[in-house]
């Protein structure tokens, strides 16, 4: 009788131990939030960002890394903010309520800046792979990080390139009046003036403008050497086509929003060797793992990278590495590791300054040549 009781106790202990071991080895689900414009005019750029995040999630899950002694199963929760600042705040609250451990996004400055406060209040780290307005990291939040150069750096590169390389004495500046476009245009104007050239026109439309004829007609009479535009490809392409139709002979420089493969399709015959773009980051051929990444991306999604997918991929991987270093997916525990991280990604060395901006940020100048964007200079 006594031995039967002992056997029963031993059996129960074994079951408890097995259950305990099983629980320790069970997957821990880690939710990663992603927010970008998945609908609307720039949805192709937003989907590009989402694809970069999905590829990173796939790779992380294939590695079966352990965090807190458990195999981490990463889950992407992707939300559409339609590039609308008001909707971005709603999306941010949705991701906070979903208890994500990190947010990759938003795509634009206009959405990233207002959303940042909600993530900061919740203590959730946010890395934008593409928002470039300096205000994003100037709000004083410890949770905000940026993976690419900001508008001060890009605006400086655009303005200096127009004056020093394209030998412009007079320039016209156009923007789309978004937080991104206007903020960047302000920096371009400063750089042009500092380089010794004159800004003879400062015009604008909206992030949905496709009829630029009135703006361009006004500019044509002033005969600028270079037209600089800060905005996205869906507005830049018709602007360039109409510029050609009016017979403007000025060289044309568009910001990173137009430095996409989609711009090549949309602008068509309006593209010549007098068209340039600047991009926050380095060209694929200079990315340490660029060639392999671009090939895998095309195989996985059957589309070419638009602009920021490599930076999204690195954002997800950097967050995961910080979690591993802290041995926790709890934002409060891994945030200090993220702030101090020094690692290498697809796009190169990754480390953040005290504000959360990427250190040693680069801006690439590209020229249209033989049907493609060709890198001609990298400015740091």
UniProtKB/TrEMBL annotation:
Keywords: Amino-acid transport, Signal, Transport. This is Branched-chain amino acid ABC transporter substrate-binding protein. InterPro entries: Leu-bd, Leu_Ile_Val-bd, Peripla_BP_I. It comes from Leeia speluncae. The keyword Signal applies. The keyword Transmembrane does not apply. Residues 30-359 form the Leucine-binding protein domain. Residues 1-26 form the signal peptide. It holds the Pfam family Peripla_BP_6. Belongs to the leucine-binding protein family.
């Amino acid at each position: 009788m006594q031995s039967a009781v002992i056997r029963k106790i031993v059996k129960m202990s074994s079951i408890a131990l097995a259950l305990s071991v099983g629980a320790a080895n069970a997957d821990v689900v880690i939710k990663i939030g992603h927010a970008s414009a998945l609908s609307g005019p720039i949805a192709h750029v937003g989907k590009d960002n989402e694809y970069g995040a999905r590829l990173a999630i796939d790779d992380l899950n294939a590695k079966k890394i352990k965090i807190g002694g458990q195999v981490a199963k990463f889950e992407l929760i992707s939300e559409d903010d339609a590039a609308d600042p008001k909707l971005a705040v709603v999306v941010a609250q949705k991701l906070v309520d979903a208890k994500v451990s990190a947010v990759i996004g938003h795509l634009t400055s206009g959405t990233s800046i207002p959303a940042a406060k909600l993530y900061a209040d919740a203590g959730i780290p946010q890395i934008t792979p593409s928002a470039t307005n300096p205000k994003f990291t100037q709000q004083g939040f410890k949770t905000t990080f940026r993976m690419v150069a900001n508008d001060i750096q890009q605006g400086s590169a655009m303005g200096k390139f127009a004056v020093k390389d394209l030998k412009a004495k007079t320039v016209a500046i156009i923007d789309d009046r978004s937080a991104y476009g206007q903020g960047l245009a302000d920096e371009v104007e400063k750089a042009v003036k500092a380089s010794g050239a004159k800004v003879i026109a400062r015009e604008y439309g909206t992030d949905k403008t496709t009829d630029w004829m009135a703006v361009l007609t006004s500019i044509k009479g002033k005969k600028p050497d270079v037209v600089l535009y800060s905005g996205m490809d869906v507005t830049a392409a018709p602007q360039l086509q109409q510029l050609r139709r009016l017979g403007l002979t000025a060289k044309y420089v568009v910001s990173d929003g137009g430095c996409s493969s989609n711009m090549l399709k949309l602008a068509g015959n309006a593209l010549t060797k007098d068209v340039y773009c600047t991009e926050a980051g380095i060209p694929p051929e200079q990315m340490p793992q660029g060639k392999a990444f671009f090939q895998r991306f095309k195989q996985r999604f059957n589309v070419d990278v638009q602009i920021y997918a490599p930076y999204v991929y690195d954002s997800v991987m950097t967050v995961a590495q910080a979690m591993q270093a802290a041995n926790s997916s709890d934002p409060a525990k891994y945030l200090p590791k993220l702030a101090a991280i020094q690692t290498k990604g697809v796009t190169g060395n990754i480390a953040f300054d005290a504000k959360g901006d990427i250190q040693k940020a680069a801006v690439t100048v590209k020229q249209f040549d033989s049907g493609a964007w060709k890198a001609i200079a990298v400015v740091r």
